[in-house]
Structure formats: C-alpha cells, structure tokens
Amino acid sequence: MPNSMIKKPLENVNGVLYIAGVSALKLAEEYGTPLYVISENKIRENYRRLATAFTRNYDKVRILYSAKANTNLSVLKILKSEGAGIDTVSAGEVFLALEAGFKPNQILYTGTSVSDEELDYILEKGVVINVDSLSQFRKMLKKTVPQTLSVRINTEFGAGHHEYTVTASKTSKFGVDGKTAMEIYRMAKNAGVEKFGIHMHIGSGIMQVDPFIKATEKLLETASIIHKQLGIAFNFIDLGGGIGVPYKPEETEVDIENFAKRLVDFFKEKIEEYGLGQPELWLEPGRYLVAEACVLLTKVNMVKETPYKKFVGVDAGFNTLIRPAMYGSYHYIVLANRLDAPLAENYDVVGPLCESGDVLARDRQLPKISEGDLLAILNTGAYGYAMSSQYNSRPRAAEVLVRDGCRELIRERETLQDLVRGQKIASWLKG
Ligand code: LLP
After folding, report:
1. Distance of CA 204 from the midpoint of ligand 1 (Å)
2. What span, in angstroms and rounded, lies between the C-alpha atoms of 144 and 396?
3. Ligand 1 mean position, distance from CA 367 (Å)
4. pLDDT band at 177 (very low <50, low <70, confident <90, very high)
5. 10-39+291-420: which CATH architecture?
C-alpha cells in the first residue's frame, strides 16, 4: 500500500528511502547517524507556495523567515536567495543572518528580556527593531534614536499546537498592551523616529486561519487608535509566524491559497476601514518553510522486550530532537531500509539518554525492527537541530543538504573534543 507520508522529496526506491534522489542508506553510511538530511528544493517550494498565495492577494507582502526554526547557514542562504528577509530573536541569530549575507534592513529583531549587551550589539548592527517592552525602549532611546521602530502587541488572542507555543494571551510574557504601545510610539515620535511598524506573533503550529483573523482584528484596531491619536503612518504591519504543517498521516495540510485569501481580504478590508493606507504586510514563517524539508536518520542500537513493552533503542534522543519529550509532539517514523515491510509490532522508540522521558514515539506501530536497521523521523526541519543539545555529553548530530541526487555536508558532526571546547579547569584543580 502506498504510504501517504512518503511524498516528494521522499521516495520509495525498491523499499529504500530516498531523499531528493539520495539513498538514506548511503547517507547514513557516509556521514553516520543521527543525521539531519535537508532538501533544498523542498524549502524553495514551500517558500514559493507561501509567497505566491499571499502576493496574489496583496502586492506589498514581505516574508521574513523565522530563523529560530533552523539556523543552518545553508538554509538561511537558500531562503535569502528566494527573496526572504529574516526574523531573529537574539544577537546570535542576527550574527548568523549577517554571516549568511542578509543586509541589516532585511533583518528584524524581536527580543524579549533583552540584556544591555545584546541591545548594544543589535543597535550597532543597525537591524530593524521590534520592541517587546517599555523598559527595552527606554534603554534603547538612551543609546540612540532608531530610524525605524516596531512594537510587539499582545493581542490577547493566541493559538498553538501546545500551551508552550501560544504566545499571546492575558498572561503571556510577550509584547505590550495597547496603552503601553501608545506610550512607546509617542516617545518614539517625539524622539524623531521616522518609520513605524506594528507586530504580533500569536503562537506556533496553527492549522486554521481564524485565530490569525481574530488577532489581526485586535492588532489593526490598536494600530488605528495609534494612527488616529499620534498621526503615525505604519510602513509595515507584521502578523508574525505560526502556520502549521501536518505531522500525522491523518492530518491535512493548510490550504494556503484559501488561508492567504481570507487573511489578506480581512487585512485589506480593515486597513481601508481604518484609513491605514497601504502598509506592507509582513509574515514570519518558520515551521511552514522548513519542517517538511528534513528527515532525521537514526540507527537502531537495540531491540528489547520486557514483559510489558517492546522497545526500539535508537541513537537519537531528546538531545537530538526534543519536540516529542518537550511538547508530546508526534513525528512520523519509517523503516528507511525496508519501507515495504508490513506493520507488525507496537514499539516505544527510545533514545540513548538516561531519562525516562527520552521517548521519540510511544506505542508506535512499525514493521518488525532489527538491530542495525535505519529509521527516518519525518518533518524534523523546524525546531529539530535548533533545539538540540549535548545532554549526557553526546556531541550534536551532523546536517547534510541534498538536491537532485547530490549531497553535501553542511554541518560537521561534533566530536568528543567539542565537549571540552571552551572549558577551563580551575587553577586550583590543576596539577
Ligand atoms: N515570529 C516570532 C516572534 C516567534 O516567536 C516565532 C516562533 C515565529 C515567528 C515562528 O513561528 P513558526 O512559523 O515557526 O510557527 N519550539 C516549538 C515552536 C516555538 C516557536 C517559537 N516562536 C516547536 O517545536 O513546536
């Protein structure tokens, strides 16, 4: 039976998983496991589908890739070459964006709980700043008057695949309320800021357009009050990221044409109603662009049966992919070296960490698994490597880029030496 999850860039070639024309077995052999394999063309396709759907309805759309999903420089360069700007949240992400060749005016920085040192770095680089608090703005004004300023609004309407990924609500730490925003914009205008934006990001992993519409209504209402009271014209209105992708076979993908049309129609209706002119519409997708472009290859170290359970022990754990442990997220898994084998057993797929929560999949139906088999964990391009760690002193995985049958290493596997890099033994312990 054809497997609906095996679709471009994945392929079943005589029972072996291929990614963009490259054999998973070959990749595992050549680069070792665990290994993140990223398809360049899939990222490009995702970008084009999204950009087309939105620009079809409004020509002043700008897409800023949300770097936190995957900061590999090659991924950043791919999206840059497609015309994306970039959404960043730390000095590190700004640094990587600059390394990848983005110009400061293509980079938006939205920090929260921003340190003085980070603020200095951001200001020095001259990127566009989206402030998250009045205190951050006060500190900024003491140092400089930015040319452009955006404010993150807490719309109080949020959504997301897990409570940890909802970023707008009455109790959220993110953004500011309308009154505080008014104060910031007033100070900014008086200080001589010339260009303005307004921003929201309501959460992550959202499959419906309705929460976006509800929050956009609140955002634009706030924008209209600010516009009326302060005479500020907004150059851009940023609706954030958050568009989800299906992870389970029974989930359907977001109908992006319909999603874009409904959201943009609503946006246009409201900016007209409020007399907000023709601001640019910015979006900050992360997951939508990269999640489905990557599989994580992991080798089976152990098969174990207890009186109660069957376990498949692999070489990737929550140090490699934390989403299942952190959010209970589901990632589809296939037996990459025998794709046609019939489903046979229920296994817990577990990693090598000394933690009971080190589970990648619970009670998952899989073919009969043997030691030495190769599993592929799907849709791991977003918040996969980016959230990985060295926990249990396990060096981080490698990343490979694939395209039209070609492959290239884009991040070396860490070595044991990386575990001591930067460490210093206290002088009194030496000897
Ligand atoms: N913009 C801002 C300000 C954000 O905070 C985020 C994500 C995005 C854009 C991109 O959201 P996306 O389009 O990727 O949903 N680690 C979680 C997701 C956390 C997202 C945090 N912020 C996960 O693995 O599901």
Report:
1. 5
2. 39
3. 34
4. very high
5. Beta Barrel (2.40)
CA 198, distance to chain mean position in Å, is: 21
Q: Nearest-5° angle of CA 101, CA 106, CA 108?
A: 115
> Which residue CA neighbors atom 23 of ligand 1 most closely?
383
> How many Å separate Cα 401 from the centre of its chain?
18
Q: Is the pTM of this model over 0.90?
A: yes
Backbone angles phi and psi of 424, in degrees to 5: -130, 135
What's the CA gap between 335 and 25, in Å, rounded? Answer: 11
Which of 113, 284, 323, 387 has the most ligand 1 atoms within 8 A of CB, as the residue to mutate?
Answer: 284
- Across all residues in the chain, what is the average pLDDT? 97
The protein residue with its alpha carbon nearest to ligand 1, atom 8, reads 241
Residue ranges of domains in the chain: 10-39+291-420, 111-285
Identify the CATH number of the domain defined by range 111-285. Answer: 3.20.20.10
Helices assigned H by DSSP within 254-401: 256-273, 287-290, 323-327
